[in-house]
Specification:
The structure is a homodimer. Chain A is about 40% helix and about 20% strand. With about 475 residues, the first copy, chain A, is of the alpha/beta class. The first copy, chain A, starts with 9 loop residues before the first helix and ends with a helix. The model of chain A is unreliable at about 1-5 (pLDDT under 50).
């Protein structure tokens, strides 16, 4: 970790040993809660609690200081009052601890004395090789090895391992605040950079560009420390994998609000917008897009073009999908004559794109087979690069049929597709959605994002084809 | 119903008696399914099944023709093959049936012969006093009396009675396709106008303007039959209650897609956009906005201005809310000196707007009380017209505390507010959201819509104050 180019943050995500500074009060202490989380998620490395007032916690020996630990330590997690933090970090640096996550807040985020304390941390990183994430952060979560530095209860214990790295400048998008088990986002690594006294977005981009587990990076950013380095790092990452950026503080008032909680002042949004575009990253604009658009990259291959097929149970939904497709840079595919012939044989109502399955399905005795056949025919068309599918799930179309249909489809067709389910029961929609994602088909809680995701995929695919 | 100004569509929503034409095959027949729905939702009027092949269904006498029914009939629902429909409607008109919902499809929506059949229906309405919704529709749902013409299973049986009328040109937003029980949208009436051979958006606007149960109208429209009459009707409605319009077919491709399933060609979107704006209606742009923005009007009073307070558990969420507020025409409230003094006494970190409750809550032993106090102080400020609140729900903040806090708050404060919950369990988020809406506080599944809703409320409130 001496290179300082940030390309290797392994000690944060894959430490072999971690020392925890914080209150060990049972249940209430954040040090206690963190150790419990580390154990619950199956981290297999060494954990060393440090606290002068305890001798044992959760069956583990507690050390009075980090110096008493004989073995080498990769990572420190510090959750102590701010005034105590610089001395702890100095001690860790002297011991050769490679990295530290400082969870404690009231540094630059609070201004005044806090800013001075933060400057002391910066000084330590310049005079030693220790690297710091934070302060004012919950740190990291690594789905692959179950390691986390988050000292708050999750309320669940399963995270789907996958290809999305979610990075942010706020703790609200980390696992202790989000329904990662219920929604089963396929996660590789997550990180909240907090006040960025050392590690920042550039380090993360460099690290994640080389991370074999990460297929796509979603990054929430309120400000950028060094524009030029950021753009270079973003370009390098985009050359390898897609980068989605959610950059709030778009408005002047938003930038002021950001400055007041991060201690950094954002610049004019148009500059950010142009810069993001120039790197080949894709800008997203809502929390929902931040969470959901990456799924298409995690689950689907790149597309060979931007021609979309829209297949729906509802004419009205088909029209909405068409609008959003056009607005997302997609072209509405024109089916080949062969496809049109095949569809016409099934029903005269299947001539167009979008296809409204509603009328033909109501005229057949075997709607599930007809639906599967139409989807297959359309996806086989050489003029179709990707598809979005809108399906009803419920009494009239049971989950098992739908899942079987996609299982068969996946064996034959490799074009990217997204699915939006509607129906009268939320639990059925969630259930069929998770089952489809188990097959590698991304699903969306709203129709518009299902289409926008394919727009983002086509845009990145084109870029990758041009430069690859 | 002779006036033809559409101001009275009562026979569709509040018939005293209804005749059903359609297959009475148990379970599979749509006539059977409709009668079951009518009975399940507690309609207390008379139901007359008509079918020459049956003598009894669900314990009710079946009539061979409508003429055999001795009593007067308000409404007919027709779910028979298209070619049989004109004769049925003629028979109903002769008997003096006041209104008919034609569920059958393959009329103008299918083109060719279907368009001719539809013209015959138009002819009947010009030569008689019968009014028609459809064809190609599921018709109506009235939450107040439980009456529906929808012949498909709902999969639930509770709908929250409330002030929102949802009208559309597609069946996908009617109760048989949407989680009305799970999401508890407060509904007055719902209607799918289908092919609009007679009743169209103008009739609905006129009717709903006078409907005492409807506080706000959300309308999905792909095209408008008569622009001038539509604008007049919309203006009259807006003078009484807010009107939200979701107008897809924005793009050329979208308009073509719309024409192919509705049989009507939409015009340039800019014309629609200007027209909608001129009537004082508010345009919404996604399904989610169509469903969720009306909730603020159903549950909250109008606002006295556009100055928003943003209170959140997360600095990052506060910044996003600030952006969306500004983009929605809201101003970020500047708290009075008195408010700032009170907040400063609670914590030095509470000086701004947005307020990030995170840091002060982590420093107190009684976070739930501090949170309640901050929200009360801010809402009491004369410089604050409305507020959006972002709260965590879960292990660290149980539902019961949150609901009690809002119950107390509602007794003291009458300013409009919206709430967005985040957390690690979807069922907890849904549960606390439904409980809050039970208290009259609208909640949102995403942060952005929670803020946009207040923007829409402020815009309509200003208009109402100017003209009222």
């Amino acid at each position: 970790m001496k290179s300082r180019d940030g390309s290797d943050l392994w000690a944060f995500f894959e430490p072999r040993s971690v020392v925890v500074f914080g209150s060990l009060k049972e249940m209430l202490g954040l040090g206690y809660a963190l150790i419990k989380n580390i154990l619950d998620f199956g981290f297999s490395g060494k954990v060393y609690p440090v606290n002068p007032s305890h001798s044992e916690v959760l069956g583990m020996k507690v050390y009075p200081t980090v110096n008493e630990i004989a073995a080498p330590v990769d990572l420190a997690v510090v959750i102590t009052p701010p005034s105590t933090v610089p001395a702890i970090i100095e001690e860790c640096a002297r011991k050769g601890v490679k990295a530290a996550v400082i969870v404690s807040e009231n540094f630059a985020d609070a201004g005044g004395d806090g800013a001075e304390l933060q400057q002391r941390l910066v000084d330590i990183t310049t005079h030693s090789s220790i690297r710091i994430i934070g302060p004012n952060t919950v740190g990291v979560f690594n789905a692959a090895n179950g390691f986390t530095t988050i000292p708050y209860p999750f309320g669940y214990d399963k995270v789907r391992k996958g290809g999305i790295a979610y990075c942010s400048q706020t703790g609200i998008v980390l696992p202790q605040c989000q329904p990662l088990e219920d929604r089963a986002y396929p996660v590789s690594k997550m990180c909240d950079v907090g006040n960025k006294c050392d590690v920042n977005e550039v380090d993360l981009l460099n690290y994640l560009a080389n991370d074999p587990e990460t297929k796509v990076v979603a990054m929430h950013l309120e400000d950028v420390k060094d524009g030029r380095r950021f753009m270079d790092a973003a370009r390098r990452l985009v050359a390898r994998k897609p980068l989605l950026i959610f950059k709030p503080a778009r408005s002047e008032a938003g930038a002021r609000a950001s400055a007041s909680h991060t201690g950094s002042l954002a610049v004019n949004d148009r500059i950010y917008d142009t810069a993001i575009r120039q790197t080949g990253a894709i800008r997203v604009n809502t929390w929902q897009e931040y969470w959901d658009i990456p799924k298409v990259f995690a689950y689907q291959p790149l597309s060979t073009g931007n021609r979309i097929a829209i297949i729906s149970h509802s004419g009205g939904a088909g029209v909405v999908a068409t609008d959003v497709a056009v607005e997302s840079g997609l072209a509405i595919a024109r089916y080949s004559d062969a496809t049109l012939d095949k569809l016409a044989k099934l029903s005269p109502r299947l001539a167009g794109n979008p296809i409204d399955l509603g009328p033909p399905l109501s005229l057949t005795d075997d709607p599930m087979s007809l639906q599967a056949e139409v989807i297959s025919i359309v996806l086989d068309d050489v003029n179709v690069d990707c598809a979005t599918i809108v399906l009803y799930v419920g009494t009239m179309a049971p989950t098992s049929y739908i899942v079987e249909m996609f299982a068969r489809l996946k064996k034959r067709v490799s074009k990217p597709l997204t699915v939006w389910f509607y129906g009268t029961r939320l639990y059925l929609i969630e259930d069929v959605s998770r089952q489809l994602e188990g097959l590698g088909v991304p699903t969306y809680t709203d129709q518009e994002t299902a289409v926008k995701a394919l727009g983002a995929l086509a845009r990145y695919s084109l870029l990758a084809a041009d430069t690859g």
